[in-house]
C-alpha cells in the first residue's frame, strides 16, 4: 500500500522500489500506451525507471501531441530508441485485410479503406468491424468486397470524438463547412465562416490547407472526421450550410469544371433544387468520371425534378442505369420517354440507348436487326451513322463479321458522321482486325480514336469501353505485356476503380489476369480473374469471359477447382459476346489437360483451330497452334505456325513457330534459344516449357549443355513456381531409392565420405552411385545436381 505523507520525489522512489520488488528476480518491462497523456508525476516515474537501467521501457506517443519533458528525454538522452511508425501503405493495408478476412480483397475496396483509414491500423480495424456488422462487406468468387458507405459504429465514432468531440462553435462551423464542401477553396471558406476560426482549426490540425496550383484548398485532416461531423450535424444547419456554399459559388461564377458538379450536389443535399438541368449536367459529368453511384443519384434527382418531360434527361439517366447494372430500370425509362421524342436526332439517341440496353443489358440477340430497321427510317446521314456505330459493335460482338464490316464501313465513309460514331464503328472493326492477325494496327487505330475522345467523352463516356475492349484484345494477341501495365496505370483505370464502375474495372482486371497468365504468374492470374469475376458477375457482358480466365489459370496450376470455374464460364457466357469464344475454348482445352486427358484436350484444340480458321482469326490461331506444341504435338503445328509467322503481327508468332520446329526435331539447343526469346518477352511459362523440353532432348543426347539447360530451367521455374503443365512434367527419373537418397545428400553438399557413413556404404560405392546418377540426370557433376533435382517435377525428388 502506498505510504502516506511522501513527497513527490518520495512517491517516485517508493513506486520504483515496489515495482522492482514485485518483479523479484525477473527482468522488468514497463509498457506505456499513449505516454503523451501521462501526468507529470507518472511521466517522471517512467523516466527514472528507464534511467535506472533496472527495467526496459516501451512507450507509445501519438504524432503531433504535446509530450511531457520526461517522456521526450527517453529518446533525447538515448535511454530508449525512438522508432517512428509510418502509416500502413495501400499494399500493406491489402495484406493486412487479406490476413484478417482470410481471403483476397478487391483492390478497389482496399483503396477506399486505405484512404478512409489513412493507414491507421486502429481505424482500419473499426471500419472493417462496422462493415461486417452492417453486412456491407461480403465474399463473392473468393474475393472480399466492401460495398457500403463508410460505416460509423459507436466505437469508431468514439475514436474520432477524441479529436473533434468538443469544439468551440466558430471552429465547429469551420469543420462542418469543410465536411460538407471539401475540397473547398480557402477564400470560399473564409467567406462562409470566420477567418480567425479557420486559422485556429488549422492550428488544431482539424483541417489541412493545401496549395493546388494557383488555388489553395482546404480538406479535413482525416476523411473520417467528415463522416462523423456530417452525421451529427442537425439537418436544418446542414441544409443552410450547403445552400450557402452553393450560393457563394454561383455568385462568384463557376470557374472550375467540377464546380457544376459540386454545386448540383450541394443543391440536391440542401433540398434547394429549382431546375433539373444543372442536375443533368452534373449527372453527365459524374458519368464521364465513371462515378456511377453519384451519376445515378443525380440522374434520378433530375428525372424527379423534371416537370416538363425533357427527353434528354430521360435518355441520359436510362443509359446510366444500364452501365450501373440496372438495365431493367433503364429500359422502363426509355419506353416512357419514347413519347417525348421530337426529332430524328432524339430518335437516333433513343434507338441507340435502347439497343445498348436490350443487347448488352438483357442479352437480346435480335437487337442489331431492330436497330437497323430503326436506322432506316432516319433521314439525316449523321443520325443514321450514330445508330449504325452502335450496330457495328453489336455485330462485332455477335461475331457477325460480314454485317459488322458492311455497317462499320458505311459509318467511316459518312462525311457527316460524328467523331463518336466513327470511334465506335472504327474500334469495333479494329477489334476484328486484331483477331484476324493485325493487333499492332489495332493499337495504332485505337490510339488515333482516343486522341479525338475530347469530342465525345463528356456526352457518351461509355464509348470509351469499346476502345478499351479493342485495345485489351490487341495487347494480349500482340503479346505486349508492357502495354497492359501502361493501360492499368492510365486514367481510365483509376476512374473506373475509384468510381465503383464495376464493368470498367472488372474488364481491366480481366486483361491484367490474362497478362499475368502469359507471364507465368498463374497465382496472380487466378487472383485477378477472381477479382474481375466478382465485379462482373452482376452484369450480362464479360462475366463468362472472367470465369473462363479463372478456369484457365487454375488449370495451369493443377487446381481441381478449374472444372467448377469452367462450369461457371459456360453458365455465365452470353452469345452477345460470341466473339470471345477463343478464350473460352482455350480455357476448356487446358482444364481438360489439367485433368490428365491430353488426347481429349488435343481433340478440343483441333475443333477450335477449325473454327478459328473458318472465322479467319489468325491471331487467336497462333495461340491455339502453339498450345498443340505445349501439349507435345509439335509436328502437327509446325507448318501452320511457320505460315502464320509470316503474316500475323505481334511478338508471339515467330518464336511460337521456332518453338514448334525445335520441338518437332528434338533440337535441344534450338529449344534453349527459344526459351530465351520467350523470357525476353516476359512470357516465362512458355520459356520454362521450352527449356524443360530442351533438358530432355539434351539429356537424351548426353550433351554437355544439359547442365546449362537445367540451370536455366530451374531459374525459369522460379518465375512461375505454381505452374504445372504437361511440358513441365518431365518424365520421372529412373533413379533407384538408394540413388535418390544419395542424390539428395550430394545436392545438399554432403561429402562422399559422410554420405557413406550415414548410409553404411563405402566411399567408393557412393562415388560409383554418383557417376550413374550424373548420367541418368544428364549433369556433369555435383554442381548440376541441385538444379536437376529442383527442375524435375517428380514429387519424390522435390
From TrEMBL:
Keywords: DNA-binding, Transcription, Transcription regulation. One of its GO terms (biological process) is regulation of DNA-templated transcription. SMART domains: HTH_LUXR (SM00421). GO terms for molecular function: DNA binding. It holds the Pfam family GerE. Residues 728-793 form the HTH luxR-type domain. InterPro entries: Sig_transdc_resp-reg_C-effctor, Tscrpt_reg_LuxR_C, WH-like_DNA-bd_sf. This is LuxR family transcriptional regulator. It comes from Rhizocola hellebori. The lineage of its organism: Bacteria, Bacillati, Actinomycetota, Actinomycetes, Micromonosporales.
Amino acid at each position: 500500500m502506498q505510504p502516506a505523507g511522501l513527497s513527490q520525489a518520495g512517491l517516485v522512489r517508493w513506486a520504483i522500489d515496489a515495482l522492482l520488488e514485485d518483479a523479484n528476480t525477473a527482468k522488468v518491462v514497463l509498457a506505456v500506451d499513449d505516454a503523451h497523456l501521462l501526468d507529470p508525476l507518472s511521466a517522471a516515474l517512467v523516466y527514472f525507471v528507464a534511467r535506472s537501467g533496472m527495467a526496459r521501457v516501451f512507450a507509445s506517443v501519438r504524432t503531433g501531441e504535446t509530450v511531457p519533458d520526461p517522456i521526450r528525454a527517453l529518446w533525447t538522452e538515448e535511454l530508449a530508441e525512438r522508432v517512428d511508425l509510418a502509416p500502413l501503405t495501400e499494399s500493406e493495408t491489402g495484406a493486412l485485410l487479406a490476413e484478417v478476412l482470410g481471403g483476397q480483397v478487391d483492390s478497389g475496396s482496399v483503396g477506399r479503406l486505405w484512404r478512409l483509414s489513412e493507414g491507421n491500423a486502429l481505424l482500419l480495424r473499426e471500419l472493417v468491424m462496422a462493415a461486417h456488422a452492417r453486412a456491407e462487406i461480403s465474399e463473392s468468387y473468393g474475393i472480399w468486397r466492401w460495398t457500403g458507405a463508410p460505416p460509423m459504429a459507436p466505437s469508431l465514432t468514439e475514436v474520432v470524438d477524441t479529436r473533434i468531440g468538443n469544439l468551440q462553435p466558430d471552429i465547429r462551423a469551420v469543420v462542418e463547412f469543410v465536411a460538407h464542401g471539401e475540397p473547398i477553396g480557402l477564400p470560399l471558406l473564409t467567406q462562409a465562416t470566420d477567418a480567425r476560426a479557420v486559422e485556429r482549426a488549422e492550428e488544431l490540425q482539424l483541417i489541412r490547407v493545401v496549395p493546388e496550383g494557383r488555388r489553395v484548398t482546404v480538406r479535413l485532416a482525416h476523411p473520417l472526421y467528415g463522416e462523423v461531423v456530417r452525421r451529427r450535424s442537425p439537418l436544418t444547419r446542414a441544409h443552410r450550410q450547403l445552400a450557402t456554399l452553393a450560393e457563394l459559388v454561383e455568385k462568384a461564377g463557376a470557374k472550375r469544371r467540377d464546380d457544376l458538379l459540386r454545386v448540383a450536389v450541394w443543391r440536391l443535399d440542401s433540398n434547394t433544387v429549382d431546375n433539373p438541368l444543372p442536375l443533368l449536367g452534373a449527372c453527365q459529368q459524374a458519368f464521364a468520371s465513371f462515378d456511377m453511384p453519384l451519376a445515378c443519384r443525380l440522374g434520378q434527382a433530375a428525372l424527379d425534378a423534371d416537370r416538363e418531360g425533357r427527353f434528354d434527361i430521360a435518355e441520359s439517366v436510362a443509359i446510366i442505369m444500364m452501365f450501373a447494372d440496372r438495365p431493367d430500370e433503364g429500359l422502363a425509362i426509355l419506353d416512357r420517354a419514347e413519347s417525348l421524342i421530337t426529332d430524328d436526332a432524339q430518335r437516333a439517341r433513343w434507338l441507340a440507348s435502347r439497343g445498348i440496353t436490350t443487347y448488352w443489358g438483357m442479352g437480346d440477340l435480335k437487337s442489331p436487326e431492330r436497330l437497323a430497321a430503326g436506322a432506316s427510317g432516319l433521314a439525316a446521314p449523321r443520325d443514321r451513322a450514330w445508330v449504325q456505330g452502335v450496330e457495328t459493335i453489336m455485330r462485332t460482338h455477335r461475331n457477325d463479321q460480314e454485317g459488322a464490316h458492311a455497317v462499320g464501313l458505311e459509318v467511316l465513309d459518312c462525311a457527316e458522321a460524328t467523331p463518336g460514331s466513327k470511334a465506335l464503328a472504327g474500334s469495333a472493326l479494329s477489334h476484328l482486325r486484331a483477331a484476324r492477325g493485325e493487333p499492332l494496327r489495332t493499337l495504332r487505330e485505337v490510339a488515333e480514336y482516343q486522341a479525338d475522345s475530347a469530342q465525345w467523352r463528356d456526352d457518351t463516356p461509355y464509348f470509351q469501353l469499346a476502345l478499351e475492349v479493342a485495345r485489351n484484345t490487341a495487347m494480349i494477341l500482340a503479346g505486349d505485356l508492357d502495354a497492359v501495365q501502361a493501360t492499368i496505370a492510365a486514367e481510365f483505370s483509376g476512374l473506373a476503380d475509384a468510381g465503383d464502375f464495376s464493368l470498367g474495372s472488372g474488364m481491366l482486371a480481366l486483361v491484367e489476369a490474362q497478362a499475368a497468365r502469359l507471364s507465368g504468374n498463374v497465382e496472380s492470374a487466378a487472383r485477378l480473374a477472381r477479382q474481375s469475376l466478382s465485379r462482373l458477375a452482376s452484369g450480362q457482358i464479360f462475366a463468362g469471359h472472367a470465369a473462363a480466365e479463372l478456369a484457365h489459370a487454375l488449370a495451369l496450376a493443377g487446381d481441381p477447382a478449374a472444372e467448377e470455374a469452367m462450369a461457371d464460364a459456360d453458365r455465365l457466357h452470353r452469345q452477345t459476346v460470341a466473339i470471345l469464344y477463343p478464350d473460352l475454348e482455350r480455357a476448356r482445352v487446358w482444364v481438360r489437360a489439367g485433368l490428365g486427358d491430353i488426347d481429349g484436350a488435343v481433340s478440343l484444340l483441333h475443333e477450335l483451330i477449325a473454327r478459328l480458321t473458318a472465322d479467319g482469326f489468325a491471331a487467336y490461331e497462333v495461340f491455339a497452334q502453339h498450345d498443340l506444341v505445349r501439349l507435345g504435338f509439335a509436328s502437327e503445328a509446325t507448318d501452320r505456325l511457320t505460315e502464320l509467322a509470316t503474316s500475323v503481327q505481334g511478338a508471339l508468332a515467330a518464336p511460337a513457330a521456332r518453338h514448334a520446329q525445335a520441338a518437332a526435331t528434338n533440337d535441344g539447343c534450338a529449344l534453349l534459344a527459344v526459351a530465351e526469346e520467350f523470357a525476353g518477352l516476359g512470357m516465362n511459362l512458355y520459356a520454362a516449357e521450352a527449356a524443360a523440353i530442351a533438358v530432355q532432348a539434351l539429356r537424351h543426347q548426353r550433351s554437355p549443355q544439359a547442365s546449362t539447360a537445367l540451370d536455366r530451367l530451374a531459374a525459369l521455374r522460379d518465375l512461375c513456381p505454381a505452374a504445372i503443365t504437361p511440358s513441365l512434367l518431365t518424365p520421372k527419373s529412373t533413379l533407384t531409392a538408394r540413388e535418390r537418397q544419395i542424390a539428395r545428400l550430394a545436392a545438399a553438399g554432403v561429402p562422399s565420405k559422410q554420405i557413406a557413413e550415414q548410409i553404411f556404404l563405402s566411399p567408393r560405392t557412393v562415388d560409383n552411385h554418383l557417376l550413374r546418377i550424373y548420367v541418368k540426370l544428364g549433369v556433369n557433376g555435383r554442381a548440376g545436381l541441385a538444379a536437376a533435382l529442383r527442375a524435375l517435377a517428380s514429387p519424390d525428388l522435390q
